[in-house]
Amino acid sequence: SNAISLKGLAKTYGNGKVALHGIDLDVPRGSLFGLLGPNGAGKSTLINILAGMVNKSAGQATVWGFDIDAHPRNAKASIGIVPQEILFDAFFTPFETLELQAGLFGVPRAKRRTMELLRAVRLDDKAHVYSRTLSGGMKRRLMVAKAMVHNPPVLILDEPTAGVDIELRQQLWAYVKTLHADGVTVILTTHYLEEAEALCDRIAIVDQGRIVANEATPVLLARA
Ligand code: ADP
Ligand code: ADP
């Protein structure tokens, strides 16, 4: 089965704005999948529905085979999400941030898992400093570690490199590739074609709440 499967997924916000017009989309397991589209296309809405942060208006969504309505806990446990904004307490240390997150997900041996993750994102030497003193790149890496704390099979990154400089973008790309090589299904949203092109093996284009293309990257590029 697929990592993510959407059938007729629709969202109309309270103010009448239709953000998603009944979209169908399958993300194969093991892929590095790009959701490409301009601002306002509906990418964040789609991710927020999968994350359980926005209620869909209609349709069906499954994550790793779990329907988000019938099995919300299993669906949620199957994804890690790196949001656009940096979200953690500036007066917590990276160690505390990850240990707390591990606790929320009931991860066994939380301290051990925390140290393992800090090593993986090369923050072990910053484990016990206030997070507010970290550089932008370190904060982003901490966000990825936080999303991976419960070892989900699917990692979703919302605009991972929006507003970051070239050096940091290269670092983040390399890190995403490492996670993918380790077997994680990765989905990222972006409005940069070059980012989707450089990283993704498959790209779906979202425009005004609709999927207007969904192809293997070389096929999509040959057409453009
Ligand atoms: P719903 O309960 O239907 O999911 P929300 O509670 O998420 O809707 O949104 C409440 C209101 O917040 C919306 O009706 C809208 O006026 C406003 N709002 C929040 N974010 C946005 C945005 N990105 N664009 C336009 N309006 C927004
Ligand atoms: P993207 O992530 O591709 O930029 P979004 O999913 O954030 O797109 O937004 C899709 C559309 O829905 C936009 O027109 C946006 O203004 C609108 N929107 C997003 N959140 C809300 C909200 N809470 N209330 C009303 N409209 C919203």
Layout of strands and helices, then pairs:
Elements: E1 4-12, E2 18-27, E3 32-36, H1 43-50, E4 58-63, E5 66-67, H2 72-77, E6 79-82, H3 94-104, H4 110-120, H5 136-147, E7 154-158, H6 166-181, E8 185-190, H7 193-199, E9 202-207, E10 210-216, H8 217-223
Parallel strand pairs: 3-8, 3-9, 6-7, 7-8
Antiparallel strand pairs: 1-2, 1-4, 4-5, 9-10
Helix pairs in contact: 3-4
The protein binds adenosine-5'-diphosphate (ADP) (2 copies).
One adenosine-5'-diphosphate (ADP) is lined by residues 13, 15, 17, 19, 37, 39-45.
Throw out a few tags for this protein.
224 residues; alpha/beta; six-stranded mixed sheet; four-stranded antiparallel sheet; 10 strands; ATP hydrolysis activity
Bound molecules: adenosine-5'-diphosphate
What's the average pLDDT?
93
User: Structural class from helices and strands?
Assistant: alpha/beta
Q: What letter string, H or E per element, gives the SSE order? A: EEEHEEHEHHHEHEHEEH
Q: Which term fits the overall shape?
A: globular
Radius of gyration, whole Å: 17 Å
* Multimeric status of the protein: single chain
Proportion of strand residues: 25-35%
Strand order within the widest sheet?
Answer: 6-7-8-3-9-10
Specify the helix fraction band.
Answer: 25-40%
Task: Pick out the low-confidence regions.
Answer: none
Q: Count of DSSP E strands?
A: 10
Quick one: biggest sheet? 6 strands, mixed
Query: How many H/I helical runs?
Result: 8
| Distance from first to last alpha carbon | 30 Å
GO molecular function: ATP binding; ATP hydrolysis activity
Domain ABC transporter: 4-224
Protein name: ABC transporter ATP-binding protein
Organism: Sandaracinobacteroides saxicola
